[in-house]
Amino acid sequence: MFAIHNQILHFDSSHIYFDGHLPLLKRPVRLGRLQSCLRDLIKIQTKHPKGLALSNSHYVSSSPLTSSQLFDSSHSLPSSLHGLPAPPFLVPAVLDELSQTKYASITEVVPGEADTFCAKATKDEGGMILTSDSDMLVYDIGDKNAVVFFTGLEIYEDPDTTRVSSVLKANVYPTAQIAKRLEVPSLLLLAYHCQSDPTLSLSQARRMLQPVQDASLWQCFKEAYAIKDLDGISSAQSIGIGQRSFLDPRLSELILQLSAAPGNGAINIYLPFLIDDPSRASAWYVSSFIRQIIYDLIAARAATIQASLPLPTIVEFSRRGLRTVPSIVSPLPSSDPIAEQKYICDIHTLSFRLRDAKARFRTISTMFQYRIFALRESYRWYIINSKNPPSRKSIAPTMTGHVGSLVQWEDIHLDAQVCSVLYALRMVKQCLGYITVEKLGREGILELQDTLEDLPPLSWLLPSSVELRKFADEEKIEVPQIVSYVMLFEEAEDHSEDSSDIEAIGKAAC
User: Quick one: which of 198, 349, 351, 500 could link to 509 by a disulfide (CB 3.0–4.6 Å)?
Assistant: First the structure.
């Protein structure tokens, strides 16, 4: 949305960078953020045990936000949503949208933290960094350059016309000038003392700008904010893709870890924090079957590069109960005939289920076809695991967006499960594009790639309730037919994930 307003306001951008890999030293910070999100979600559920009230909010209004409202901090959330964690798929959705705009040529998922790439580009080319990360204030970006935060942006509209005025107001932070006014050589040493002792005031930290006592810690801190030589480095070159990368940041991180140390140690993936019901099993469980295929594909790719290396160990970090914990996922060894058959069968099974949903609902848009598939996968997970499945009452709003003024936690949880399935499908599609499937010689992979060819961008797959309601009304979605399909499926297919009889699975699903 900001990119659209950029075009209207003639606000020019030269680079748009996204994190494609974070160093291991960031692990405590990442786990801390996930656990903090979980604490916030638990607080909200405790405060609103019956659900989240959305009345008197633009979130259920039919009117879209205006240009000025986009950056208007006074445009408040309903009270029930205060403290809610950020939308889990905001970054990949923005990436999908940018890939369809004039900004595609300057957008990149980089093989590291985006901060360094932003700082170097600004120092070399001049300009301002638009960010939400206060760490950018610490980098040496040059004497005439500055940092601007999204929270400080305001767009002014002409009250007499519908035209958006070309006025963008922002709080600008010229870091070199700030350091000069504070009478410090740079903000880096100031930041080091503030981080070392968070109780220090700014004036106290200024008085401590003498050589630090622990030189090793200071050196590590400096290196973290050093602008390295990044010439010629891109995520595309780093992971072997011959074009600019729009890989999902988590998939990029998986591949980069594998490239950096194939066969050594664990490969970590931090699943986005889903806004689900924390009193239930994590919504990520329903897409475990699909994510297993992703890891098997990556392992198969690794085997084609160096067959002698051991299989990588995948470690997923996500919610389990009321904690964020690691879970080990073991990719199937392609050298094992039984595992090979299971791997092939899983791919055929996923293709079959996708094609079945598309065939039965061929008259509606692909967005709804994939959402129906995701709903059915979620419902199947409940049946297979002998849990009480979602009610008919919960399934309907997940398809139509008619949520009412109170969204119950059952509905929130089912929506999160649908999101987890759709996000996993997006990663499968991107993974198939990365691994060059023709070289793998795997049965069914090309078929699966063809089946996922029409998967819409994430921003279309996961519309807001307002947008979903609009689309459902326009397409005259037949809810009873969809609910019946989601809730009733053949017994033979129910057991297609049972690995006790690989031969039987192959006959049933393939």
Answer: 349
Instruction: Report how far residue 468's alpha carbon sits from residue 460's, in angstroms, rounded to the nearest whole number.
Output: 9
Q: What are phi and psi of 172, to 5 degrees?
A: -105, 135
What's the pLDDT score for residue 405?
82
The C-alpha atoms of residue 431 and residue 71 are separated, in whole angstroms, by: 35
Q: Could you give the CA distance from residue 262 to residue 265 in angstroms, rounded to a whole number?
A: 8
Q: How many CA atoms lie within 13 A of 61 on its CB side?
A: 10
- Strand, helix or coil at 421? helix
Q: Which residues, including other chains, have CB under 8 Å from residue 1's CB and lie 6 or more apart?
A: 70
- Single out the residue of 241, 93, 66 nearest to residue 165, CA to CA: 66
Could you tell me the pLDDT band of residue 237, with boundaries at 50, 70 and 90?
very low
> How far is residue 26's CA from residue 113's CA, in Å, rounded to a whole number?
10
Farthest-apart Cα atoms in the chain, separation: 76
Nearest 5°: phi and psi at 45? -65, -40
Looking at per-residue confidence, does 306 or 227 come out higher?
Answer: 227
Question: Which of the two residues, 333 and 398, has the higher pLDDT score?
Answer: 398
What pTM was estimated for this model as a whole?
Answer: 0.86
Mapping DSSP to helix (H, G, I), strand (E, B) and coil, where does residue 314 land?
A: strand
Residue 208 burial class via C-beta count within 10 angstroms: exposed 0-12, middle 13-18, buried 19 and up:
middle
What is the percentage of the chain residues whose pLDDT exceeds 90?
Answer: 45
DSSP conformation class of 176: H
Whole-angstrom Cα distance, residue 240 to residue 256? 10
Contact at 8 Å (CB) between 66 and 78? Answer: no
Residue 508, pLDDT score: 46
Quote the tokens at residue 233. 């480095």
Q: What is the pLDDT of residues 410-448, one digit of tens each?
A: 999 999 999 999 999 999 999 888 776 555 556 688 889
Which burial class, exposed, middle or buried, applies to 457 when counting CB atoms under 10 A from its CB (0-12, 13-18, 19+)?
middle
Supply the pLDDT for residue 325. Answer: 94
**Inter-CA distances, 464 with 67, 285, 457, Å:** 18, 23, 14
Cα angle value 281/282/284 (rounded, 5°): 135
Bridging pattern class, strands 406-407 and 52-53: antiparallel
Core vs surface per residue 151-162: b (16+ CB within 10 A) or e: eebebeeeeeee
Cα 245 to Cα 236: distance, rounded to the nearest angstrom: 5
β-pair type (172-173, 266-270): unpaired
| Type and span of the H or E element at 407 | strand 406-407
Quickly tell me which residue has 């051991």 as its tokens: 310
297 in Cβ contact with 275 (< 8 Å): no
Q: Coil, strand or helix: which one is 187?
A: helix
Mean pLDDT score of the chain: 81
